[in-house]
Design a protein that fits this description.
InterPro entries: RBM42_RBP45_47-like, RRM_dom. This protein has helices at residues 2-36, 88-96, 122-132, 173-180, 211-221, 242-245, 251-259, 293-303, 327-337, and strands spanning 57-58, 76-82, 101-107, 113-119, 136-137, 140-141, 143-146, 148-149, 160-165, 186-194, 199-208, 225-226, 229-230, 232-235, 281-284, 308-314, 319-324, 341-342, 345-346. By secondary structure, the protein is of the alpha+beta class. It folds into three domains: 55-150, RRM (RNA recognition motif) domain (Alpha-Beta Plaits, 2-Layer Sandwich); 153-255, Alpha-Beta Plaits, CATH 3.30.70; 265-346, Alpha-Beta Plaits (2-Layer Sandwich), CATH 3.30.70.330. The strands form seven sheets. It has a four-stranded antiparallel sheet, with helices on one face. Strands 10-11-9-14 form a four-stranded antiparallel sheet, with helices on both faces.
Length: 349
């Protein structure tokens, strides 16, 4: 009887929090629409005579702002999926057409670049988001959204992390956090996104300050409906001692996974390993030709994310496959291994 009452209370809290998250998204959309109606007749504000040092900023996929993110004082925007022919000066010119730009930074990647634009006032930043998101530069649509400092997230390195799979594409960080925040020690929630397509990879991670809350969430929410799918919940590491083993999901690792190159494989395919629970094999590319299966096994074993069933390496082609016992272990191996080095080369997972 008490268990049923507990489940009803959790369900009611989740529904209320989901409604609050939806209301916040609607309010942000209304504010952005209002900003679009503003004209450029307002005089620009120049509170800083020189360029301010940019804070440590991480990209946010469109529609995937962090839980509790407050854009009311934000003047910076993130620009993703930038064509390689776009230069710093061109990026500055495009965003200068919206309002006075304080600073502009372009970070080049192998297949596409991303950058950050700092405005002198929030109004211009909001107008840039609604006006330029989806606009094409050299035939490639850019993604524009609020940028935020990584210090706005709580440090979860010592927290207990659970894996959440089978997420529907509409679930954002905020929605995932709202669903689990019925448990008071829930500290963070992150959905894995593919920056190039803007689509969810179909899974995420939720952090808890308290181990018992994490275990209770797994027990009570595994198989429950979030959106139009039944989610799967399990420990993000083998066993419940995630904090002791430091199997943390830190900000840097998340950004590397989101922005990491795919090595020729389309990891956003809905039938790919991240989204299909039947897949337990991880593709590993860009391997040095002198690396063998024992070297790859040793590396992935050191990640400590699960039980390795089989390792196959095609040395002359520079790639291989690592098969895990479960889908959750394979997904976590992708998250933790992306961008790391084997034999002096940065692997593509």
């Amino acid at each position: 009887m008490q268990q049923q009452q507990r489940m009803k209370q959790v369900a009611a809290q989740q529904q209320q929090l989901m409604q609050q998250a939806l209301l916040m998204q609607q309010q942000q959309a209304a504010a952005a629409a209002a900003a679009q109606q503003q004209t450029s007749m307002f005089p620009p504000l120049h509170p800083h005579p020189g360029l301010l040092a940019a804070p440590q900023i991480e990209p946010i996929v469109s529609g995937n702002l962090p839980p509790g993110f407050d854009s009311s004082t934000c003047r910076s925007v993130y620009v993703g999926n930038i064509h390689l022919q776009v230069t710093d000066s061109l990026l500055h010119e495009v965003f200068q057409s919206i309002g006075p730009v304080e600073g502009c930074k372009l970070i080049r990647k192998e297949k596409s670049s991303f950058g950050f634009v700092d405005y002198y006032d929030r109004r211009s930043a909001a107008l840039a988001i609604v006006s330029l998101n989806g606009r094409q530069l050299f035939g490639q649509p850019i993604k524009v959204n609020w940028a935020y400092a990584s210090t706005q997230r709580e440090d979860t390195s010592g927290h207990f992390n659970i894996f959440v799979g089978d997420l529907c594409p509409e679930v954002t960080d905020a929605a995932l956090f709202a669903f689990f925040s019925a448990y008071s020690s829930c500290s963070d929630a992150r959905v894995m996104w593919d920056q190039k397509t803007g689509r969810s990879r179909g899974f995420g991670f939720v952090s808890f300050r308290n181990q018992q809350d994490a275990q209770t969430a797994i027990n009570e929410l595994n198989g429950k409906w979030l959106g139009n799918r039944q989610i799967r919940c399990n420990w993000a590491t083998k066993g419940a001692n995630a904090g002791e083993e430091k199997q943390n999901i830190d900000s840097k690792g998340m950004v590397e996974l989101i922005n990491g190159p795919s090595g020729g494989k389309d990891n956003t395919n809905e039938d790919g390993p991240e989204c299909n629970p039947q897949y337990t094999t991880v593709y590993v590319g860009n391997l040095p030709h002198d690396v063998n299966s024992n070297d790859v096994h040793r590396f992935f074993h050191s990640l400590g994310v699960g039980s390795i069933e089989e390792v196959r390496v095609t040395r002359d082609k520079g790639f291989g496959f690592v098969r895990y016992s479960t889908h959750e272990e394979a997904a976590l191996a992708i998250q933790t291994g992306s961008g790391q080095l084997i034999g002096g080369r940065q692997i593509k997972v």
